[in-house]
Amino acid sequence: MDKLDYIFNPRSVAVVGSKQIDNHNWLRTVLPFDGPKYHINIDKNEWPSAEELGFQNYERLVDVPGDVDFVIISVPAQVAQYVIRDCVAKKVLGAHLYTAGYGEIGTEEGIQREEELIKIASEGGLNVVGPNCLGIFNPKIGIGVNLGGYYGDSGSLAFVSQSGSQSGGFARGCVANGIKISKLVSMGNGIILDSSDYLDYFKDDVDTLAIGMYLEGVRDGKRFYNSLREVSASKPVMVLKVGESEDAARAVAAHSTSFTTGPAIWDAMLVQAGGIKVESIEEIFELSKLLLVLPPTTGDRLGLLALSGGHATEMTNVFSNAGFRIPSLEERSYERILEKFNVVGSTYQNPIEGRTLNDPEHLNNVLDVLNDDPNIDIIVHEVHVVVRDEEATLYRGHGPDLLVDFQSRARKPYVVALSTSYPHPPADIEDNFYHVLTEAGIPTLHGLQGTASALRKFVSYYQNRVA
Amino acid sequence: MKGLNKIVDKMDIGSTRVLSDPETKDLLVDSGIVVVETAVANTVDEAAKAASSLGYPVSLRPISVESSLINTVGSFPLGSEAQLRSTFPELVKDYASWDPEIKALTVTKVPPSGIEIMVTVFRDPLFGSVLSFGYGKMAVEVWEDVAYRIAPLTEKDCRLIIREPKGSSLLNGYDTLSAPRPTVMEETLLRVSDFVDSNPNVESLCLSPCFVYRDEVIVVEASMTLIKREGG
User: pLDDT tens for residues B169-196?
Assistant: First the structure.
């Protein structure tokens, strides 16, 4: 069993230093967890309220009669080392240190405290998450549910973050985007367990299909490169590396203990290791929709379905600028399209658009033709949610069922691009359609540019893997 | 890598040493990297002798470890012994104004024009030795048209790094320059990478210019910095 598995999948949990005045946030974050739960506090005034929440109280960790796999520590920095020593004495298998006030504050005191912590933990063989972080979220077993914002429903995207707020925001953003998390870690200063350790763990984690990372820097560059290279050979890793401009580097230095190397070298390292460079958290959401759902794809010839003639030309422009080919179809395909197609006021070469597609039979026919045509690797369908006569539909008049039905018979990747250039329908109506499509397994992305950029990175990842 | 170890043995721990062009080339040749034929001449007679054995045209360059001089100064191609004999003392005098230590010059055979490339290795604080590649010094330094890879490079890395810069359209040949077989460049980069990987004392390396022909890459000028680390 991997040493990190006791941190992400503990059999028992202890929380040190929870307070009623904070609504026992640190107890509540493991409340749904099914195994033995302990509350450690020298202040017995905190005990009754903790007991009400279902925790067994002890003064010290070493007093707990059974084994403790994972400990969450939320005590002031001045006393944290005593708790860490108890963790070592109790032979716990992992400790998350929420406590801040270490290397990241940049003072001599903080740096000294961090060195002391590293010494105690490494001599005692203790795996430490943090310090200065929000720790672990595993929705499946109900660990870190305050951080993630939900539990019970787990997915296949893992996330590693050097920032606590980015990790919590990410988890909630995933909910909004219909993406489910396998495991998440806010790793803080990473003094014992660093980004490479988490990366290595997620490589072998059967619940995880893709990994996202928010990085300000790494401690051991060579090790990170080797880990990333190895993991990327089997699972896609999206890396958001901040601190690349001079101003950003200063912001990073003020936030964590990482130091920066040139952006050109970082970029080259990512390319060489086979990682996927992303520019924003939003891009991780968009890209994840493709990576988690679609099979590996190296073909870059697109069949495009557009909303209108103008959109068809824009779509061609945007997708070819992103490095895709939008080829002509086979002669036989055009014959089939024209059997059910009114060419007046339409385009059917590729992209395909036209009023004739109002007719579900015609639209289905075109989708099937693209599905069959050997010149096409991926189908991209631009849609727009409209409210007409008090009825919400996908432009032009179809419900999501038609798309969902096609998805079930599609033999190649089928991607929906929600148009952002028409006046927007009410957000809840668009959301509803979005979730219907997403839950049916259709990657549904926002905007032509965003879709093109994510799709490019998706295909490039697999191309690079086999190059 | 006996030659290199011999040099490092004589260095103090923590010290660095910049190797001259001929010293660097000797070490590269040991690693199977092709360099332009280069002789060292202390006197004009030695230069003339070397030139006649190399064959004209030749060019003369100062042997200097002053980084500002490396790869920046040198003579125009000299086509005859008479030309060489009149140029030699002028150059020695000229170079002395930059670096009074210069006594000897290198005599190199002027290679035919080829596609120019520049290869360097330097140490990144985070990722260790990094190799850079571009289509000539100006492309790299002025247009920043350069690709990087962390050492050691795999065959795939070599295949991709030469195709990454915009200048890689030169791989199709240009004007009178014939298209090289990409594998000859890839093999050279692999040797450079292996050389650096097996010699942790190499702190930096600069091969520029190198000329690429259809079946060969030739290093025209080279310099190297060694560092002796604790335990190294």
Answer: 999 999 999 999 999 999 999 999 999 9
Q: Nearest-CA distance from A220 to chain B in Å?
A: 7
- Residue A114: which domain range? 5-129
One domain for residues A117 and A141: no
* Structural domain count, chain A: 3
B87 near B180, Cβ under 8 Å? no
* B71: pLDDT strictly greater than 50: no
- Per-position b or e across A36-46, b if 16+ CB within 10 A of its CB: bbbbbbeeeeb
Nearest chain B Cα distance for residue A267, angstroms: 9
CA distances from B40 to A222, A338, B44, B67, B87 (A): 40, 78, 11, 19, 16
**A208 and A144 within one domain:** yes
Q: Chain B: which residues have CB within 8 Å of chain A?
A: 124-128, 130, 146-150, 156-157, 159-160
Both tokens assigned to A154: 């787990």
**Alpha carbons A37 and A90: distance in angstroms, whole number:** 15
Size of interface A-B (CB pairs under 8 A): 41
* B157/A261 Cβ within 8 A: no
- Domains located in chain B, CATH noted: 2-35+112-227 (3.30.470.20), 38-109 (3.30.1490.20)
pLDDT tier, A398 (very low <50, low <70, confident <90, very high otherwise): confident
As a whole number of angstroms, the distance between CA A58 and CA B105 comes to 81
Q: What is the mean pLDDT of chain A?
A: 93
**Looking at CA atoms only, how far is residue A261 from chain B in angstroms?**
6
Express as a percent the part of chain A with pLDDT over 90.
82
ipTM confidence score: 0.90
A270 part of contact set with chain B, CB < 8 Å: no
Taking residues A240-257, what's their average pLDDT?
66
Query: Is residue A297, in this structure, part of any structural domain at all?
Result: no
Single out the residue in A129, A150, A175 at which a domain terminates. Answer: A129
> Is the pLDDT assigned to residue A371 strictly greater than 80?
yes
Same domain, A183 and A217: yes
